[in-house]
Amino acid sequence: MEIERIVETFSSAMVDKLNANSGKGGWENTSIHELFCRLLNEVDELGEAIRTGGYSGYMPDEAVDVANFAMMIFDNVMNDRDDTPMIFPNDNLDSLKVQNEQN
Question: What is the average pLDDT across 82-87?
Answer without folding.
Answer: 68
